[in-house]
Write a structure and sequence with these properties.
392 residues, Uroporphyrinogen decarboxylase, TIM Barrel, binds coproporphyrinogen I, single chain, EC 4.1.1.37, alpha/beta
């Protein structure tokens, strides 16, 4: 298929830039003005219209067919019309290992499966480090999906692009799928740290190129999902996770700055780091000074705790417990209350003069068992609580 990057001014004008203003820090959390809101994994299995598409097409066919990926990306925007402030391109973090030459299958009821994961440093040398990756050619189906979706969104909400944190991808590439303990990946890092560093560095370089390409294709904010950031020690986090999270925004900026400025330059959009489980004071502090505009939070810390340990220059995103959407309206109402006007909530802190933006989201992806009407109730409750100027 033919694809080339569009001219960015060929896209419809963005009519709702609340997310971008919060992330850039130009729209601090203001009482009475609902902050931007979106839901991690908002396009997916809990939506019957997604299941309908999946009945006819395999998971990676949806990812690789721009028309289908675009359709699925727009499904939550249509269903929750006016209640969501962002869309996120439908794809998966595992398209990057595929681009690097590893086979990945999506098994029903099981999840991702690598028929031949990386087995040892020699194997990684041969299959990963000694191989050049043509990031454009391998992933242009994602870029085509992003460009088409930017047009079809018609400026309604911004479009988020994403990739995984290098440590999370290393985990899948070594384990061959999801794992409760990630012990093969950890054993590799402890036994052969030089090899682990070389692979992490390679993943980071490919991922940064991929993120820059997504921006050239039309992505307006970038999020890095480091879902497995919770499985190492604090020292392991500083050694195998943080340096590669830091490398991503540095390299994305370098790539974009190196592009010719005519016909027009491509500015670097705001970036979000979501390192699930990295919630100690030291980790929050490091993440808030790692080159990202927004730090995503899981649900294990209070907003006040997170605010205390992060720079006021970053916006925070989260931190509603996704499981609460399985708990019915009273539970949803109580959890929304906790993150807004609870004693340690974002709005309570803002009312006390604590600085810094907030992007409302769950603390991890929405789960398949959620009733879409409960997701709608969640979005409505947030708007209701955030319209108030004080606790009632
Ligand atoms: O059969 C199916 O339809 C598979 C279900 C599914 C979906 C809908 C998978 C398999 N991936 C996705 C889409 C997806 N994955 C998106 C885009 C949709 C959206 O956000 O609206 C994104 C951002 C991801 C990211 C992703 N994939 C992560 C990081 C975020 C997170 O939730 O932790 C991870 C770890 C994966 C791996 C993955 N892909 C799919 C599965 C089942 C898994 C294992 C982790 C899991 O079970 O959630």
């Amino acid at each position: 298929t033919d694809y080339s990057f569009p001219s960015l001014d060929s896209f419809p004008t963005l009519r709702n830039d609340a997310l971008l203003r919060s992330a850039q820090g130009t729209q601090p959390l203001a009482l009475g003005t609902p902050p931007p809101i979106w839901i991690m994994r908002q396009a997916g299995r809990y939506l019957p219209e997604f299941q309908q598409v999946r009945r006819d097409h395999s998971f990676f066919t949806v990812c690789r067919t721009p028309k289908l990926a675009c359709e699925v990306t727009l499904q939550p925007i249509r269903r929750f019309d006016g209640l969501l402030d962002a869309s996120i391109i439908f794809s998966d973090i595992l398209v990057v290992p595929q681009a690097m030459g590893l086979e990945v299958q999506m098994l029903g009821g099981v999840g991702p499966h690598f028929p031949s994961p990386l087995v040892d440093p020699q194997d990684a040398q041969r299959r990963v480090l000694d191989r050049d990756v043509d990031v454009f050619a391998e992933l242009k189906y994602v870029y085509a999906a992003i460009t088409e979706t930017r047009h079809k969104l018609d400026g309604k909400v911004p479009l988020i692009g994403f990739c995984a944190g290098p440590w999370t991808l290393f985990g899948y590439m070594v384990e061959g799928g999801g794992s409760r303990t990630w012990e093969k990946a950890k054993a590799w890092a402890y036994k052969n740290p030089d090899s682990a560093h070389a692979v992490l560095d390679k993943i980071a370089r490919v991922s940064a190129q991929y993120l820059a390409h997504q921006v050239q294709a039309g992505a307006q904010l970038l999020q890095v999902f480091d879902t497995n950031a919770d499985c190492l020690t604090p020292h392991g986090f500083d050694t195998f996770i943080l340096p590669y999270l830091r490398l991503l925004p540095t390299l994305v900026r370098e790539h974009l700055a190196a592009l010719p400025s005519s016909p027009s330059s491509v500015p670097c959009p705001p970036m979000t780091v979501f390192a699930k489980g990295a919630t100690s004071p030291a980790q929050l502090s490091s993440l808030s000074q790692s080159g990202y505009e927004t730090v995503g939070l899981d649900w294990t810390v209070s907003p006040r705790f997170a605010r205390t340990h992060t720079s006021s220059r970053v916006a925070l995103q989260g931190n509603v417990d996704p499981s609460v959407l399985l708990g019915g309206s009273p539970a949803i109402k109580a959890e929304v209350r906790r993150v807004t006007w609870g004693p340690d909530g974002f709005l309570t802190c803002a009312a006390e003069g604590v600085k810094g933006g907030w992007i409302v989201n769950l603390g991890h992806g929405i789960t398949p068992g959620v009733d879409p009407e409960d997701a709608r109730y969640f979005l409505e409750r947030v708007r209701r609580e955030c319209a108030k100027k004080g606790v009632d």
